[in-house]
Amino acid sequence: MFKQLKEDINAVFARDPAARNTLEVLTTYPGIHALIMHRMAHELWKKNCKGSARALSSFSRFVTGIEIHPGAKIGKRFFIDHGMGVVIGETAEIGDDVTLYHGVTLGGTTWNKGKRHPTLEDGVIVGAGAKILGPFTVHKNAKVGSNAVVTKEVPEGVTAVGNPARYIFKDKDKNVEEERRRDYAQQIGFQPYAASQDQTDPILEGIRVLMDRMQSNEQRMNTLCQRLSLLDPTFKKQQTEQQPYSEEELKIIEEVRRECESQTRQSQV
Hints:
About 45% of the residues lie in helices and about 15% in strands. By secondary structure, it is α/β, with parallel strands linked by helices. The longest helix is centred in the last third of the chain and has 30 residues, at about 200-230.
C-alpha cells in the first residue's frame, strides 16, 4: 500500500511542474486524496463490503469533487490533475501511467448490467472535459483532446479530437492514390476547412470522393476540347473569345484564392 502510494506521489512530480514537495502533494492534491480513498474502497468492494465501499466513495466525492465507483479497476501511477468533476464508472478499467484532467467522464451508454464503461490502457492521456462513453478500449499511449466525445475504440498512439471524435495518426503511410489526390488539391489551391487530410472524418472522406470526380471530369473535358479542336479549328478560337469575367466575379475569385492560400499556409505551419 505504502509502496503504491509512493509511486502515485512520484507520478505527480513527473507530470505536474507545480508540485514542490511531498507534504504539499499529500495535503493539497485532491487527485491523490481520491486515489487513496478509492484504493481502500476497492478493497472493501472486493471483500463484498459493498455498502461500506459506497459510503467511502461518496465521502471521497464530497471531499474532492472526484467520483470514482469502488468497483472501478485502477493501475499504478494514476494521476488526476485538478480533478474537479471527474467521473469514473463501475466497470471502467485503467492501466498504468494514465493521466486524467478535470471534467473527464468515463461513462456508459446502456442501462444493462455487465461491462459498460471504457478501458484505458497504459500511458493514455485524457484532456479536460473529455467524455469517453461505452465498453471499448482506448489503446496504449493514445491521447484524447479536451472536450472530445469518444464513442468507439481508439487505436494505439493516435490522438482523438472533436465531437464526435476523429483520429489524427502520426507518420501515416501514404499510398499512391492519396499522393495523387493531394497533388491535385495543391494544383487547384484547395484545403478542405483548413483540416489535415490525415483526419478520419466523414465530411473529409466525402470531399475526397468529390475531388476524384472533379479531376476525372476535368481530364475528360480537356480530351473532348482537344478532339473538337481537331474537328473544327474555329472551336479553340471561340474558347479564347469567351466573355471575360466581370469585376465582381474577379473579386470573388481573388478572395477565394487568398483564403485557400491562407489555409494552406496554416496547415503547413
